[in-house]
Structures are given as structure tokens and as C-alpha cells.
Amino acid sequence: MKDSDKTTQVSAKGRLLSLDALRGFDMLWIIGGSGVITSLAKYTDAGWLNSIAAQMQHVTWNGFHFYDLIFPLFMFISGIAIPYSVKSALSKDPSKSKLLLRFLKRMVILFILGLLYNGVFQDGFATARYASVLAQIGIAYFFAAVIYTFSGSVKATIFWIAGILAGVSVMQLFVPVPGFGPGVFTPEGSINGYIDRLYLPGRLAYFNGIFDALGILSVVSAIGITLMGIIAGKILQHQTFSEYRKTGILALIGAVLIPAAVLLSPFYPIIKVCWTTTYNLLAAGISFILIALFYLIIDVWGYQKWSYFFRIIGINSIFIYLFGRIVPVGEITGFFVGWITKPLGSLGEVIGALVIIGAEWLLLWFMYKKKVFVKV
Q: The domain containing residue 225 runs over which residues?
């Protein structure tokens, strides 16, 4: 039995329910979901859980774990939202220059929030790291939104995607780094690290200050996956496609991109911290399949109640990301439940991790009920 008799693509307020749910699913692992899996694996020592727990950590360099999907999936989701937000904004005010200022404002705010997340306002600017997750989201969103708004077509967006990914590929594979040559994928020898050491201000956070995963070329590459999110958004927004056709197209694109990345990986490795094109293709392929799955179940079949937990997180995703960084949630919840969890050892760690998620979710639920939505 469906949760709703009426299948619909969007909620009453014009939001794709599947998009909020997927965003919440993505954020869950950052705000404590990975901690639950890791502590549960430690408590049970079950082989299958240990395998899943290993996926809750980033690969140091070459390769791909589930946790390496979280960031690009978020950027892909932000790209999906662009056609909807642009259409809504232009329907109220056709001035594209005002819309451009809005994109610029969003980028600046996210850059400043990224500095806040990095602790710049606590530690000062002398040793500041200017690169950040939020800055990368802001910059990639700005350029992707501008490209979409002023190019005006899916075909032009696809050309931009191809151009960006091809340009990054040429840089990473064929442009020589002094002392190393072209196509070297090490922190010291990669073109990513070389460009950042020359031009990226502030502290580089990786490999003893010689590399940054959120550096200049990584940001350029990340624009590509945000643009691919726009393609997904345009497919979902298409007036004449049926819901099942939309689902099929999204899944088919994902099914093409994933093997393409795997086939290229022997000579063009999948490296998250370099945002190689193969990493982009793999992450985008999985993202296309995930949005197809969430859209099919939630918006087409109408099974929506199960997604409420995720949607509560997804609606205020940027807020909870910053909240978890600034507020010591674990210490606060431990202050109240430590008398229960500490004597239980590793089982207590599982309970403690669940309490953290529960506390964060209740805060987000309270904000949702009070209609408090932190938007950037």
C-alpha cells in the first residue's frame, strides 16, 4: 500500500521530496552515521560489518570507498536544484543580472562559512587554510549556475561538462611538473599539488603542507559534477517525459558512467583528493543511479513516509554540517548519558553514537516544525 494515493513529482511547495531525502541520506553519514557503523563493527566484530566500516573512511590516495562519494554527491544534488531555483527566480524577476548577484552572494557566504569551519576566526589568518568543502561547493555552484543560466540549453551544458573534464584530464595526464614530468599521480608530482603550491594562498592541509584535496584544479573539476547534476535536474524537470522514462534515463546515464570510469582507471586512476576525471565519472554515475532510485520510490511510486527521517536532515543540511563542527555534540550528549554508556564499553559507544544522531535529528525536527530553514 502506498503512503500516498497520489503520485507526484514534487511536494505541495514545489520541492522534489526525493531530492531532500537523498541530500539527507548523504548528510547522515557526516553527522554520525559513519560513527554508528564503525562502533557497531567494533562491538560485534562481524566480518561483514567490518567490511562496511572500512567503507566509512576516505581512501588515502588511489581508490574509492563509499565515504568518498559523500562530497561529490552533495555537489551533484546542488546541481539538480539549479534548474528549479533558476526557473523559480526568473518567473518572479526576469533579470539575469540580479540572479547573477544572488549566485555571487551565495559563493561569498559559503567561502566565509568555510573559513569559519576551518577555524580561521579562532586561530587567526597567519596559518589559515582558505580551501574548504563549503568554498568548493560555493565556487562550483556559482560557475555551474552561471553557465546554465546564460547558456540556456542542455546541449551547451553538456559541451561545458566535456570541456571541463577534458581540460582537467589533459592537465593531469600531459602537462609536465618540473622535476617529475607529466602524468605523475603522487602528492609531490601531481599537477594538482604543483598548481596549489604556486597559486593557492594559505596553508595546504595534506601531506605535510605540499598538497590540498580542495585545491584549485579540484575545484575546477568539481564544477563538472555540479553541471552533471544540472543535467539530472533538467531530466527530472522535463515536461513531456513520463516518470518512468525519467527514471530510466537517469539510471542509464549512471550505468554508462560507472564502467567508463572503471575501464579508464588502470591508466587514469580514480583519486578523490585530485578529483581526477575518472573519479568524477564514477561519483557522478553512482549519483545518477541514486537519484533515479530515490525519485522512483518516493516521487513516482509514492512511498514517502520512510524518507521523512532523511528529509528532515536534508532540508537544513548546511546548518547541521556547521553545527556539528562548532558545537561539541558528543560531549553534550555524553554529559547526560555517559552514566549509561561508559560502563557498557563498546556497546556504550554504539548507544552513544545513536544518541548523537538522535539529538541532532531532534534539533532539525524542531527547526522544521518551527519553519526555521537556514538557507545560503
A: 17-369
